Amino acid sequence: MLVLTRKQSETIHIGDDIIIKVVQTGRGSIKIGVEAPKAVRVLRGEVAEEAEQHISTSQAQPSTCVAPPTKPAMNAGKTVKFGAV
Q: Fewest Cβ atoms nearer than 10 Å: which of 17, 26, 53, 55?
């Protein structure tokens, strides 16, 4: 990990198109600005971790989708609705 010291209004450049700027400093925290192309996803660490947990949890749960019956005669004469429960 690269660790840099910056003062208010100073910047860090990442590649050709990402700029990190120290906007404000305070007691125990700093405010930073990030300039990046729209295609670059920028998230706070805790938000990224939460999104990752949500994705892994949803992939681990069994699917709630039910396959339609394979024999057409099972539903002969009945109305069958598919969609939200």
A: 26
